[in-house]
Amino acid sequence: MITKKIIAFVLTATLIVGACMMNNSANTVSASTTGHTAHTISPGTSFDNNPLRGFLPFDFSTTTFPHSMEWFYIPVRDVQTGMNTFNWSALESRLNAIAGRGHQAVFRFYYDYPGLSTGVPQFLIDGGLTMRYYDEPSNLGGAGYCPDYENQTFRTSMQNFIKAFGTKYDGDSRIGYITLGLLGFWGEWHNWPYDEDTSDGKPNWNISSTVYTEVLTTFDSYFNKTQLCVREPKSGVPNASANIGYHDDSFGNATLSAANGGQTWSFDQKLINLNQQNKWMTNSIGGEIYPPDQGSFFSGTTWQGSTNQTWAACISEAHPTWLICEQMKNYTGTTLTNAKTAAKQLGYDLQVTTAYYDNLAASAPLYLGVNIKNIGIAPFYYDHTMWPVQVGIKQNGSLVKSWTTTWDLNTIPADKSAKTFEYTVSAPGLSNGTYNMCIKVVNPLSNGNKLGFANAGQNTDGWLDLGSFTVGGTSTPTPTPTPVPGSITVDGNASDWSNISSLSTATGQSATSLKVTNDSNYIYICAQGSGLGTNSQFYINSDNNSSTGYQDSAWSSSGCDYLFELGKLYSHPDNSSTWSWNDLGTANVTISSNSSVYEVRIAKSAISNLSNTFSIGFKDVNSSWSTVSKLPASGALSSYTLK
């Protein structure tokens, strides 16, 4: 990756273009998509096991649950044999085993893990380091030895370890994320209950801000590629300036801030207290679903932990990319289905909305522009130096050319706005014929999980098919849109809907007919009746999953992900009956309505999780915001399949 120090770098038209992989053409980056043929790229289902996100088990777990990473702890004593001597074989064996299964590793070094033998190197113990014995109940971990973290010799050895660790492993393709660890019980940066509250009769073993700062800043200095996380920000420590994210090891139990129903000492509240709540925009957030809750978290209709902190609320506030969930290997039935859905909601989710390319005359330059948006809850955190994007040309299903770009996926914000990337090959060397334009994100682990875009043209080989073009002609025809059953004009006149069948009808009420159709770019919806109100609404279950989205009691099965009301499109952030919608504005919608026709056009690209089959409903709402009638009049939402 370009170092983490420039994670906010913005791609411009002056990008240096990556080296050609399969020929030696001189490549440049074009200044604009203007003048090139636009091709709408259809949305599709996200990959189950996209790399660097989702749930992960401990290493050596055997599970068919889709995952791309594995977790482990490792004691420092396994690798550090002296103040400046190291044997990395124990770490190498773990990394190689995980990589052999096609996965990246997430792990943490520790000195003190309650219930396990000490992780402190033997040479420090032999040198007289104070080791403080404790014996806690099994629910607090059990017995162990807490080292004196303030000891200068210990601190020097720890600094030496971090420097050697970063020098050898920063940017290693076998590693997804590293949690800083080292300090405190489990490497979680606390020694509770051995803290400043000595009323319980336990001594104060709190670690000073000086030691926390030493560890944080040394990790930050020696890891400039691999993403890092630490348990929590600490007062008196340079949290904001460190390019390091956080991990919540009690996710779903103590995640939400106090204002959102959580504890005053919760993960998000600690971030807010030290102004770190937006760190997810530049650095990854990870963690572990609270272990006692893992077995039951996804078993019900409302996914929540034992403290009633819901999954939807927690991911909305914390924006996690990865979570340890060892119990996923035991999930079956509804719990398994729910957990798979939940895992796909973590982290990034990239989707191409438009590709710009042309039919080529012989010997003409090849140009590609793509609009990519992130429809997930967090960014993709690595840049092109570790996770490059390739432009590929296929013919009859086989790759014939490819080039590596300098497109930085970590510059795409997780706000559903599209970012344009461009690439030009001055002499592509293609013979006359018909080809397919493709792009692919390369996993630096050669056998690693493929990164798939949330598009219908995503292939299992990793290449996203953007459509065909020809070489040898002189013109570029405009792409022909998918035929529409009739020609729909959004004008408040329903005559052009006469040949389209109704999804739902009713008599004896104001709303009498609901119809839907589509072309390659838009969804068209029409409700008809008499005396329709000005505040009427369309509800869309876009992913066809009734357990996600707004739960509207007006229908027996809803799960509404999107709402159209008063000329605006809205999305719902969770799977609850709370009337809480995100305003997506008017840019992607067109409306015309009167007392007998309520007609809307919505851009497909505005709906991030559009399934090939989705569900829809209509409410006739009067000026007092009372529902007068609805379609369907009873039962579940009406189902529609894209043409």
UniProtKB/TrEMBL annotation:
Keywords attached to this Swiss-Prot or TrEMBL record, sorted alphabetically, are:
Signal
Occurrences of domain DUF4832 (ranges): 244-446
Report the domain of life of the source organism. Bacteria
UniProt signal peptide: 1-26
Q: Which PROSITE patterns does this entry report, sorted A to Z?
A: PROKAR_LIPOPROTEIN
Is Signal there in the keyword field? yes
Q: What is this protein called?
A: DUF4832 domain-containing protein
What organism is the protein native to? Answer: Anaerocolumna chitinilytica
